[in-house]
Amino acid sequence: EIVLTQSPGTLSLSPGERATLSCRASQSVTSSYLAWYQQKPGQAPRLLIYGASSRATGIPDRFSGSGSGTDFTLTISRLEPEDFAVYYCQQYGSSPLFTFGGGTKVEIK
Amino acid sequence: EVQLVQSGAEVKKPGESLKISCKGSGYSFSTYWIGWVRQMPGKGLEWMVIIYPRDSDTRYSPSFQGQVTISADKSINTAYLQWSSLKASDTAMYYCVRHTTTFFDYWGQGTLVTVSS
Question: What secondary structure does DSSP assign to B65-108, as a single string?
Fold first, then answer.
């Protein structure tokens, strides 16, 4: 089973700052099999990034994904008030088919 | 517009059975895998199971195999998740998800299941 470890657990930043979130896999992940989601309090998650670096429909270009192998990054170039949320990475592979990381909370400093 | 609309919140007692639903619209229901993701209170996301409505092929996470059953009725574009005997540890939010290629592109609004004596 591939385990995804996200860091940091919590990121305290101010609006306008850059956020860098890490997702590390216990084994190499095919880049096209890595996705990121955003979850705001009381809401369902929504897809942000798929294929490690492709933005989903309607996602602003301040969100970008990168990485390969075992190290992947979600970057928010300039935080807007609506970006404070929890972010999850997810990989697709062998059993189990899908695994999620534990999440990174981006909170207002 | 693609939508996944889930059934409402449930409060059950331990040992009771339950079936929750998810109705898809705005796309060809039979030709996309659809499934369920669990989120326990204050915790992260866990993938449970998916089904291909066209032929009812299923894939379960080992953690949930034997604990829940997924089904789908393609005539009414609806997927289901059921428990035969609930436990307090089944208390969680359950999200219906549409699976495409390697990720989940649409999510339902969630169904909160509370199991308490």
Answer: BTTBEEEEETTTTEEEEEESS--GGG-EEEEEEEEETTEEEEE-
- For B3-35, how does the pLDDT look when each residue is reduced to its tens digit (9 = 90+)? 999 999 999 999 999 999 999 999 999 999 999
B48 neighbors B62 (Cβ within 8 angstroms): no
Find, in chain A, the residue whose alpha carbon is nearest to that of B35. A98
Q: Which of A7, A38, A2 is nearest to A22 (CA)?
A: A7
Kindly report, residue by residue over B42-60, the tens digit of the pLDDT: 999 999 999 999 999 999 9
Residue A29 and residue A91 in contact, taking contact as beta carbons nearer than 8 Å? yes
B104: nearest CA partner in chain A: A47
Q: Which helix (H) or strand (E) holds B24?
A: strand B18-25
Q: What are phi and psi of A37, to 5 degrees?
A: -130, 155
